[in-house]
Each structure stands twice: as C-alpha cells, then as structure tokens.
C-alpha cells in the first residue's frame, strides 16, 4: 500500500540507532550545559555544575598558590556534592601517577618546575583524569560537567593562572615526559621543495601551426 511504502521510505531515511557509547556522550553533553540540575548544594551555571570546595581543599589551593606545596589533587563527593581534598603535598612529576586511583576520576593542579632551552620554568597546569568505563556513568558525567566551573573558580576566585589544561585516561599517562611534551611540543620544519632545472634542449615539444609548417617547407624548397 502507499502508506506502507511511505513508512518504508521514512525508515530508510532515518538516522541509524545510537550506540550505548553515543547515548552516554549525549547525556554527558546535556549535563555540561546545566540540564537536569536538582535543588541542592550544587549550583547550575551556563557551562556545567559548580560544587563548593571544602575548607581543606581551599587551604591546600592557597598553599599551592603561595608555593608551600606543588601538587593538589581534588575529588568530588557525589553524595554531599562538594569538592574535597584528596592529596596536597610537594611531589615530583614522576610520583604523581602513583597517587591517582585507577577506578575513579580526579582533578589535578600541579606546579611543574622544569628547564626548557636553558631557562628554568614554573608552569601551573590543570589535569582532569578519568579512567573511562572503570568508573560509573554518573561519576563520569558529574566530573565532566564540574570541570569547567571548577577551573573558573580556581582562576577567578583563587587567582590561579593555568598555562595548560589537559585530560588523561589512565594514571600511567601522567609522566614527566608527557608533561614536557604537552607544554613544549616538537616543532616540525617543512623543507621547501625545489624542482630541478631542466637540461638545455630538453624542453617540452612545441606544437607548430599549419602556417608555420608551410613556411618551413617553402624555405627548404628554396634552398
């Protein structure tokens, strides 16, 4: 029937069904825009959800800003809807991976001291770590939606100035070499390509018009 045929055309034109991963990403995006925010201690803003920092977390951020410590690791308390302090101490870059849980997301603020081209640098970086499907969907959604507001809070309310904001999956990715490469990526210089000059007498063949051919033949007959 015509109705059945039209239904068939509609089904052919419809987009393919979303995978579970695509559905989950769509849900995360909806949380990042502040959709489905309940009445609680969290605050909905234009780019996500903002949880308040605990006194310990604020104190650790202040110590890092003054240079008393070099590393602060922050975690979300999903039940109380607050940002808590997980680690606050002075550590070297290579030791941070050992403090990151393999089954939970975390935020990291690190004062990376290093040398680059003979210059001593102190670079403040923000890193968001999330071990994929090893942590729950709700946890991934909240960490993703709270990341932007937390960065804004640290920058605007506590005066931190990040030179780089990054994300990792596995804790093993957080290494000194990885940090250095992120801050100072290798520069590839493209070499200009020059065409070899053509040899004398090896140019392309020239097409002659019929009038030119007649002239050449006439000159040969005259000679």
What does this structure look like?
- 37% of the residues lie in helices and 22% in strands.
- It has helices at 2-13, 20-32, 55-66, 93-96, 137-156, 176-183, 210-222, and strands spanning 43-45, 48-50, 71-77, 82-89, 106-116, 119-129, 164-168.
- The strands form two sheets. The protein has a five-stranded mixed β-sheet with strand order 4-3-5-6-7, sandwiched between helices. It has a two-stranded antiparallel sheet with strand order 1-2.
- α2 (20-32) runs parallel beside α5.
- The protein is globular, with a radius of gyration of 32 Å.
- It starts with a helix and ends with a helix.
- Residues 31-41 have low confidence and may be disordered.
């Amino acid at each position: 029937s015509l109705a059945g045929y039209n239904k068939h055309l509609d089904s052919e034109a419809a987009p393919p069904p979303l995978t579970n991963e695509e559905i989950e990403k769509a849900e995360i995006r909806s949380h990042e825009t502040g959709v489905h925010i309940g009445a609680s201690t969290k605050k909905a803003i234009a780019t996500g959800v903002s949880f308040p920092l605990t006194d310990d977390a604020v104190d650790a951020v202040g110590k890092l800003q003054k240079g008393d410590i070099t590393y602060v690791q922050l975690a979300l308390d999903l039940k109380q809807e607050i940002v808590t302090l997980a680690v606050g101490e002075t550590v070297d870059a290579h030791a941070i991976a050992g403090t990151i849980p393999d089954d939970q997301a975390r935020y990291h603020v690190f004062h990376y001291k290093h040398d680059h081209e003979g210059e001593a640098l102190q670079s403040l970086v923000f890193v968001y770590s999330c071990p994929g499907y090893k942590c729950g969907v709700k946890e991934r959604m909240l960490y993703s939606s709270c990341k932007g507001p937390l960065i804004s809070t640290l920058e605007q309310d506590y005066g931190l100035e990040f030179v780089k904001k990054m994300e990792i999956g596995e804790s093993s990715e957080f290494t000194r070499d990885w940090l250095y490469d992120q801050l100072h990526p290798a520069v590839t210089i493209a070499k200009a390509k020059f065409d070899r000059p053509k040899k004398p007498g090896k140019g392309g063949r020239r097409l002659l018009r019929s009038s030119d051919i007649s002239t050449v033949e006439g000159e040969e007959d005259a000679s």
